[in-house]
Design brief:
Rossmann fold, 13 strands
């Protein structure tokens, strides 16, 4: 049975002076109602209030758990979607004739067929910057846990083993960031705060940032050779799929750590497992997977030199609230006939709002 239920209505008014006072009023005056699918169980009260003020009828549908045919049936009459990590294919846009916007809670839109969405006049948006601090802190946390053996020491203490294990200070190392966008820059700033040397690879080097934070931009090969910790923060597209493969892993130091809180497909899984088994690199810290939940038989879960977490880098109260609010705001903009603020595509026709 498909898991679905209507979210309870929240009796909340958007206060005058907010970004949505006019939008909410103008839409509610027309007494329209929009079918909006929410895919996120954690949708904030603020986001619900924004959407309901705009005449949206919310229903929670865990689209990520559905087959493509089930997905199509659910979305057929939807006007908008508060989207997560589910896949939006051309077939889905073909059947979603009323759909006006897919508002992603997060940054990555690699699961959305952007060309098909544009062809069908559907806006696709994301929430840039919402998870920068959350993911950056988590990435640094993974580094510290690995360097100071925090995860293992915690388990051993509960097992009655009072064992001290010598660690390494982050400030004594060189941290290399692959993809110095918003999250990557946040990681670099934190690394510098610990006293670490910071190097970065990005197709668009920011020299002003580099000078301010004493970061050296290098080629990818040079970064891999020099870094003690390589932290991945680039987006996933055709140019970054498999960016870190066998050849790249062989460039890294045998004492180095690879951290991935971006997308699993950026790293060649087979090459990574082989490199870890053969001690080409010392270890890896992995938060992202090909699917949610990940395969319980994934070889990375069974390796002693891999620190694994459940795709949780983004998951803080502050980041979730911001993501939900911005996604709701984007839906409100589009349903009121305006263009969204954070579009990642350019629809051929914006479509009329009934």
């Amino acid at each position: 049975m498909i898991s679905r239920y209507h979210l309870p209505r929240v009796r909340c008014r958007v206060e005058p002076g907010s970004a949505f006072a006019v939008t909410a009023c103008s839409i509610s005056e027309k007494l329209v109602s929009y079918d909006v699918i929410n895919t996120q169980a954690y949708l904030s009260d603020e986001a619900v209030a924004i959407l309901e003020s705009c005449g949206c009828q919310l229903r929670l549908v865990l689209l990520e758990t559905l087959s493509e045919d089930e997905f199509c049936r659910e979305i057929a009459n939807a006007d908008a979607v508060v989207a997560g990590g589910e896949y939006y294919t051309g077939k889905i846009f073909d059947v979603a004739e009323r759909l006006k916007i897919v508002a992603r809670t997060g940054v990555g839109v690699d699961h959305v067929d952007l060309d098909s969405a544009a062809k069908h006049g559907v806006w696709v948006t994301n929430t840039p910057g919402a998870t920068n601090s959350a993911v950056a802190e988590f990435a640094i946390g993974l580094m510290l846990s690995w360097l100071r053996h925090i995860d293992r020491l915690a388990v051993e203490m509960k097992q009655g083993k009072f064992v001290r294990t010598e660690g390494t200070e982050l400030g004594s190392l060189t941290v290399g960031v692959v993809g110095a966008g918003g999250i990557g820059k946040a990681v670099l700033r934190l690394a510098r705060a610990f006293g670490a040397q910071a190097i970065a690879y990005d197709i668009h080097p920011d020299q002003e940032f580099a000078e301010q934070w004493q970061v050296d931009y290098l080629s990818l090969d040079d970064l891999l050779q020099q870094a003690d910790i390589v932290s991945i923060h680039c987006g996933l597209d055709e140019s970054t799929h498999g960016l870190i493969g066998e050849a790249q892993l062989k460039l890294m130091k045998p004492t180095s750590l690879l951290v991935n809180t971006a997308r699993a497909q950026i790293v060649d899984k087979v090459a990574l497992v082989t490199s870890l088994k053969e001690q080409v690199i010392a270890g890896a810290a992995i938060d992202v997977w090909e699917a949610i939940p990940c395969d319980p038989d994934d070889p990375l879960l069974k390796m002693d030199n891999v620190l694994t977490t459940s795709w949780s880098a983004f998951y803080t109260t502050q980041a979730v609230n911001t993501m939900c609010r911005v996604a709701a705001e984007e839906i409100a903009h589009v349903l009121s006939g305006q263009q969204p603020l954070h579009a990642v595509n350019s629809p051929a026709a914006s479509g009329s709002v009934d």
